[in-house]
Here is the input.
Amino acid sequence: MMMKENNVSCLADMKKIDWASVQPSYNPTIARMLTIATGVFTALDIGEAVVTQKYWVSVNYAGIGRFAVAIGSDVSWGLKARDVKKCGMFMKI
Here is the structure.
């Protein structure tokens, strides 16, 4: 929609787009996608480290930290959704 509104026809025209209004924020689907992606990459890194027996050298520690943050974000979205469902159930009673 933003591309149509700003008549973007080439790569240079992409500067016309207000990216702050386009990017999703506070979206549980994005949090779940990041959790899955970082989990897969972390599993592959750890698997490679085990197979090559380069335990301390081959592991992406920043990736493990990012995976921990992604899990925390995903769990918080789940807890928020559960609280919303509980509130909805009490309102019906």
